[in-house]
Specification:
This protein has 22 helices and 34 strands. The protein is of the alpha+beta class and 835 residues long.
Amino acid sequence: MQVPNKPYRKLTAHIPRDLGAALARLLIAYGLPTMLEKLHRLRQMSHAELAHRLRERWRKETDRLRFYGGRTGEEYKFDRLTEPHGKSLKQYFLERASFRFYPSVNDKDETLSLITEQFPEWMNRTIGEAGRLVEHRLNILGHNDVALETDIDWHRDPVSGFRWGRQYCADYCLVDRARADAKIVHELNRHQHLPRLAKAFFLTGDETYAQEAVKQIESWIEQNPKWDGINWQSSLEIAIRSTSWLWTIFFLLRSQSLDEIILRRICKSLFAQLDHVHRYPSVYTSPNTHVIGEATALFIAGCLFRELPQAGAWLQFATATLIREMGRQVSKEGVYSEASTYYHCYAADFYLEVLSLARWNRISLPEWTWKRLEQMLELVMHISRPDGSIPLIGDDDGGRALALSLEDYRCFRDGLSSGAVLFGRADFKYQARSFSEESLWLLSAGAWRIFGAVPAQAPAELGRSYPDSGYFIQHSGWNPEDTHVVFDCGGLGRPTHAHAHADALSFTLFSQGRDILIDPATFVYNAANEWRNYFRSTRAHNTVVVDGKNQSEPGASFSWKREARVHLHNTFRLTDVEYVDGEHGGYRALRNPITHRRRLFHVRPDYWIVLDELRGTGTHQFEFLYHFAADTELVIVEDEPKGGVDCRARIGDAGLQLFMYGSEPIRAEAICGQTKPIQGWASARYGERHPSPVLRNWMKGPAPASMMTFLIPSKAPVHSRRLNSNTRHALAAVVRNGDYDDVAVTSVQDGDLHLVDCVMRGEFFWMRMENGNLRRLLAVNAHSFSYAGETVFESEQPIVYIQAHFWDSGIVIERGDHEGKIYVRDLRDIQFQRH
């Protein structure tokens, strides 16, 4: 009898086998797996982490005693801040702190003049939103126009109605709760709507907006004494709320509603919250954007309140942390390391806040941190589609680091707008399209003039490869109607796997101004395990599912039990073609292991070819999934005897045609809004889900198996057909492309392959024919190719790639190695091609 769980094998090794298995099951039944997992995790900790966690545990227990004893800390005294300013805290803010804050707020006249003269729509939008906020109506993640009570209960989830009980803040367990998602109440208590409300006062002088903002902060302070309740549970949430309060205070400094007494009361709570963040940073508990966000709030406060005794410690800790985490969490390619495009924007936005304020306060940070931020924005530039949106690869948090105007990162053009100003980048400005309101608030009204002086110029590259991170971005061009593809050839990310999905070798496609092949995004983190696991599963992505299994096996909401290892074989980009070749071993855990290899071949600007190889043994079911935007209409035509599927997708005026040719007969169906099992869903923003069609193609047969798929963005029908070769281990097809017939051939086994007038040996061949004559050849990992009885090239070792251009009197061959280019006058003179 097999012992059912690996952690217990050593524990029960000395016990008779049957008894050991029974004991292992008993340990599982009584919940000891969690204990053993914790012990295993403990053994993996460094001495530094152990010391930090012990100190943190001691603090929590000490603070618990103080909390229940009614002694939650010192009363803040503001003498050092107020003494030189007539003992007035408000005067300190006006005369000292405001000149250290972002200059757009300090120079009100210039800011107001710019908005009034150049961007009146910003003013109208601000006033309209403020009117709704005064009525206690706001958007919370994917829930729009949520109505709060007249007297807001800050512990109540306004979406579900669930009220979080009051207890010591460290005693909450928020993950995997069945009744409510803590992220909703956390989002409300970030108070990111308050700066937008206060901004309306700043721009109009209407005290109605100031009174409401002050009233909400005061009610929060009354309901949330130190360490009491869920709103003290997360240091990141406290940090973001602290930043929101700071912006609110500076917007309201000229308001009568923010008098000396109220400002002192707000600052006492604010400084207590910042002290808590400093006392309990997420250095090891959430070593990702949590710790970056916490350090950002402490950096801002440390810059502003230098006369405050604890401000020096805040600033020192924040500066060291931000520098360290930039090096640890952002790769040398400039990619945030958690395999999430949304969290990449989060991290970049935090650093925009920090570096902008550092420059204003003449605080020197290492030059490489500025360069790394510029690289992060380069990824945003490349990964943004023509409409400015980003594909939501990995988790989608639904919020923002700072939400002075926009509320999420589905579009991060404002980051590119700020980047154009900070780095003088013409390509950033091209993708940003226009100067953003967020850039004004972070960088000053003068930034608008700098932005205007930078010329807008399309990026020089039609794509960008990030091999270390696994992102391969391909553009057919930079115009609004062009096609944009992101191929995910990476793993679950580092330093944690918290926000990754089981999406290896998946891709997204945007074309003709529309999102067509999508990543369905996230929906929820907590309170709905089945939905959480679906949205991060392999079957929720445009890749291949084998025997109904996930590539990587999910654990709790932010962990994984098993990770698919991804390997990049090869990538190259020529003038008008691009090739990426990767594989993962996520299905090697099957009884008959399978390795999935996917190659993406782009014939710019016209179409893509997806080549899937599934190598291994045994008989399997292979599912090839394509997820479409919600309003897509699908028409599927099967050609089962020939093992092919033709699918035509239309979404508005845009279209995509898929031709699929398999090594076995293919069956196809469209699924939308299915719940048992879950399939055919997407999320527009965290907390929202909607039906969205999925093309499911499946075939059952022995490994190795293969599939060739043409993806052709086109409003008009395109014609393709399968070609017959001399072996079942090869796939060949032709597609009509303007005046040419393009032929693609792939083989999963070695040996000569005969097709029409060609004999070839290698992995992949692409040929362009004109009126039956060969005009161009691209061979990848190939040994030989002959055409009409003449040898074009031959090699004992496979050549990475060979590109050949043919015309009536000669041929040019370009090898993807040291041989370079060879010119041949006459095809009968073959001595130059033999190696």
